[in-house]
Request: fold
Amino acid sequence: MIRFPALTLLILFGLTAAAVAAEPLDVKIGYLRRTAHPETISLTQMAPPDDGLAGAQMAAKDNDTTGRFLNQRFSLIDLHLKPDADPAAAMAQLADQGVSLVVADLPADALLKAADAGKARGMLFFNAAALDDRLRQQDCRANVIHTAPSRAMLADGLAQYLVWKKWNRWLLVTGSHERDKLYAAALKRAATRFGAKIVQEREFKDTGGARRTDSGVVQIQRQIPVFTQQAPDYDVLVAADESEVFASYLPYRTWDARPVAGSAGLMPTSWDASNGLWGGIQMQNRFIAQFRRLMTALDMQAWTAVRMIGEAVSRKNSADPKVIFDFLKSPQLALGAFKGQKLTLRDWDLQLRQPILLTDARTIVSVSPQEGFLHQYSELDTLGYDRPETKCKLQ
Amino acid sequence: MMMFLSTRGLRFAQPTLQLIAACGCMIALANPASAYMAYVSNEKSNTVSVIDTDKLEVIKTIKVGQRPRGIELTKDGKFCLVAVGDDDTIQMIDTKTGEVTANLPSGPDPELFTLDPAGKVLYVANENDNTVTVIDMDKRVPLGEVQVGVEPEGMGLSPDGKILVNTSETTNMAHFIDTATRQIVANVLVDSRPRFAAFKSDGSELWVSAEVGGSVSIIDPVKHAVTGKITFAIAGLRSEAIQPVGISMTKDGKTAFVALGPANRVAVVDGKTHEVKKYLLVGQRVWHMAFTPDEKYLLTTNGISNDVSVIDVASLKAIKSIQVGELPWGVTITQH
Reply:
């Protein structure tokens, strides 16, 4: 009598195990993109057509390799939104395909629309592209995790290094577009936090026209010195030009012999194809072997998002977004992402803590946080908005 | 780079000097052991430094291929094998002449490898290829390969040679491979970025370090289950800086040493209770270690300070640091 139920249980358990072995856990991840990649000044910096997506694809393949041993399978559903398409409708489309995990390469407003539309369906989003601080502050969402660093994190990473170099007097040149101004605001905040001084701010107006022309270099060589002359004494020119209108023209052409940082010269980023630190060379090699091009910051941010999902699924053996979210938010998360330390989530705004690389696009010049910038919890929290400063109310 | 080194070095300058002063008398008192040679791979210099473990000084520097990392001696001691990852091969250094005499078909980007107890078969982790390559040492030809997880690294062989354990850094697993069939028989999830796998000499436990996870998992090799976890806490250091890599255990299984990377320390762990007894301050970014055959000394490779620390095993003290090439990575010591 006692043995009978035990035996039944054993059989049931055996059957369940067999059923699991036959049916792999299927994890579907949506990749939603609408970012129009702008023209760049430099021909070598043009975004490839699969920018970001390739990183997500590599992570899905990495997850699959692990999944072979755990009977888990990962698939990516790439959804390219037209500029006028409604993100909410796209959410319904993804949900109908059984997708509840979405990696997004969307501008801030579109991301918020998608996330709010997906909320009722329990969808979890990973912001791999939008740098806007408001997405981590007043416009934060309880179903949006950020693998992209914020502008404040990038600006703080750069500022710490400039201050460490004692290049404390900055000439700030800002573009005339909205996002240039947002980057400039982050740089100004960073200057105040770390003790640098903006001696003057100038605006470089976008008057339209082509980024590159055949004999444009002749004119630029004359324009930039004129634009930068008669500045108060400064140590470094810091440029805020996310729109790619002028910053790359600044180095070597300023009136005074000064280094350039920000959107050209020394640039803060989450990743660069020159990074071989902390096993990064393995990542670069694998990426080049698979895609025959160099790996960008957006690729890395998308890779990180899909790897976070893979990490949660391998630990929890579940594709339930709620289970995945709870794991990612917990102290159990210790993501390896070739950054020399474990990466974790800030529980107050769901931003992934990460070091910021400083690159001149040929080598890694330094990595922030810089030595001496201390923090009682994590030195990574010296980058961006820290817990006491947060305006985020997750809901 | 130099500025970076000097600012960091300052903090350790004082204790190092004291240690060097202390070690002078230690060595004077010690009985001369028979001369063992330690071979240290210098990842950036593309060299192997040879250290006489009696004199505790570098007696020779050997030029090798590009990016030497994993390093081990053949069982007969005739060759030192060194994985030169950027040349996609494992080079054989004749220990008599100190010259590279042959290259092994290791597969792409070899990093760590291990020899079977008879010294006939070499198992190599190929980081770029998600494979473990099996090489016949007599014929120097590949025998086959095993598909494992993403970025295979650590390689540990059970004392009887029947089970090979490979760790994969991005998959976060220890893969148990039957060496007879070359099939994976079990996969055990461990913490993030597992770097190194070591069996106890009696085969009762497998220890796997997780660099990013900051832990060492104790695994039952029969049940294929994690039975315990060692974590580390050092006053004044953030947990992110504690990154376990190399593991060395005494033959009696009583004491284990775990290299903690940028924590610049080696943890001394009780082999039975798994309790951390002590942290020994060594050079910067300590990764791998090797005992002299008499287990009198343990040598550690310290990547950022370009030196090797010598730990006196009986007194559990770092007694000397020996300058080697740039970014020392691995170390192996002759057994004869």
Q: What stands out?
A: The interface with chain A takes residues 7-8, 109, 127-128, 130, 149-151, 168-173, 175, 184, 187, 189, 191-193, 211-214, 238, 240-241, 243, 262 of chain B (CB under 8 Å). Residues 1-33 of chain B have pLDDT under 50 and may be disordered.
